[in-house]
Amino acid sequence: MDQIAKFDIRTSAGRESLAQHHLASDSQDNLTLTQVVDGLWSLVNYLGPRDWMLWQYGGFVVPMGHRTTRLFTLPAAVALGSALHAVSTCQGFADLLQGFDNPTQFDDTIFEVHTAQWCLQRPAVKSLRFAPRYIVLGREKRPDFEIETPIGRLVCECKRLHLNNQDWTDRLKRIVKTFEAAMQAEQISAGMRLEVKIHCAIKGDLSSIASRACREVAQAPTGALVHFGPFSLRLSPIGSKPMVNDCVAQHGLVRVGDTPTGITPEYTYLIVSSPWMEQALVRAMGALINAAHRQLPHERNGVIFIEGASDQGRQAAATRLIQPQYTHCLAVFIIGRGKSEVSQRDMDQEVVEWLFSDKPPPLVRRLQDIILWRSGIRLELLRRSLQRAT
Q1: Which distant-in-sequence residues (6+ apart) come within 8 Å of 234 by Cβ?
Q2: In whole angstroms, what is the distance from residue 119 CA to residue 86 CA?
Q3: In angstroms, rounded to a whole number, what is the distance separating the alpha carbons of residues 389 and 102?
Q4: What is the rounded CA–CA span in Å between residue 154 and residue 145?
Q5: Fewest Cβ atoms closer than 10 Å to its Cβ: which of 108, 310, 330, 340?
């Protein structure tokens, strides 16, 4: 794809030209011309013209806060525009759009939009309202949205794991800087990428160990995996695909110069990941679930949606759903890297599958569930059960 081309999607001609440019590229997303044009039109229509709506170097450069930006790809922009159109008729839609006015909440609001769209697509969900008002422990709360279902209204809260705000990410960034210095000291070619994976705690002087590790991998054949101390390392050409890595704890660097470069893993010159550091993710995901839980009214059933590490999130959710204070929480959905998992109590599985997986129980059972849940009897019985268990 021509990275130098520019397209202003705030204009009809810009949207049409970008759509044709995208279809002529080697993209594998299978979007049609109509889907691209309509999605981009919806994006501009609902968010209004914004400075970042200029496609260049492979995407849109969106401000995310103080001196921070990120690349927003065309497929992601089309998906957001389509999702905004799908939820545009919901009550409180204007309140949702306010989240896009704060750069630090841009990705959080995107997650909320896509989650709301997904809920609306469930056959059991009859309607959706954004930003309802509730009093929780004497304070006004405005959860993200609520949905109307056969068993009554469910209040929903969405949270994202902000990796840059975690303590271990600062440690990971320091390790990245150390390896960057070691690459320069060992004179590793500017056309090569160093991939580093940390498997256990690093003992001793980090600079010395990183230098020795770089020396070892520089002497190995290109593409060979080298094990040294707590690391496994590999050198590969920049522009080629790095090793498959689904590790959440990872950080990469891209050189920015006179030549336009896509900000993608293929163009990184250093990637450091740490499966060992992911142990801290269970605690981080637990704290996120707790924060979402504090937004839910205690007298009404609710659902929590978390975007983050799915495996660690499932562990954190399981330990909380058996606690009495989580009685009104029907389920916790964990969404991460194309994988979605749900945690619920065994006794609630039938209802959760009915509402969110389109697996309704027999008619008689459905009527029983409707009566039990709408009357509040189910909530009270569950609260007593969990209190006895603890």
Answers
A1: 194, 195, 217, 223, 224, 225, 226, 243
A2: 11
A3: 44
A4: 9
A5: 340
**Tens of pLDDT, residues 200-225:** 888 889 999 999 999 999 999 998 99
Closest CA to 108 of 146, 43, 52, 160: 160
Distance CA 16, CA 26 (A): 18
**The two structure tokens encoding residue 104:** 């630090």
pLDDT computed for residue 164 by the predictor: 66
Q: Count CB atoms within 10 A of the CB of residue 327.
A: 21
Note the residue count of the chain. Answer: 390
Structure token digits, residue 89: 């008729």
Confirm if 154 and 115 have CB atoms less than 8 A apart.
no
| Average pLDDT by stretches of 10, the chain with 390 residues | 77 95 86 95 97 92 86 95 97 96 94 97 97 90 96 96 73 90 91 91 90 93 92 91 76 69 75 81 88 92 91 88 92 86 92 95 93 88 79
Residue in the structure block whose two tokens are 């044009």: 37
Q: pLDDT value at position 195? A: 92
What distance in Å separates the CA atoms of residue 169 and residue 161, rounded to the nearest whole number?
A: 12
Give the count of beta carbons closer than 10 Å to the beta carbon of residue 184: 11
Residues contacting residue 129 through CB under 8 Å, at least 6 positions apart: 90, 91, 92, 145, 146
Q: Report the DSSP beta bridge partners of residue 152.
A: 149
| 296: nearest Cα among 388, 379, 353, 381 | 379
**Total-model pTM:** 0.78
Nearest to 228 by CA among 218, 238, 242: 218
The number of angstroms, rounded, from the C-alpha of 354 to the middle of its chain's C-alpha atoms is 25
The pLDDT value recorded for residue 310 is 81
Q: Determine the 3-state secondary structure of 112 from DSSP.
A: helix
Which phi and psi angles does 89 have, rounded to 5°?
-90, 0
- Shortest CA distance to 214 belongs to which of 272, 274, 172, 257? 272
Q: Are residues 384 and 374 in contact, defined by beta-carbon separation less than 8 angstroms?
A: no
Give me Rg for the CA atoms of the chain. 24
Q: State how far the Cα of 64 lies from the Cα of 67, in Å rounded to an integer.
A: 8
pLDDT at 381: 83
Please say whether the beta carbons of 310 and 337 come within 8 A.
yes
55's tokens: 């496609």
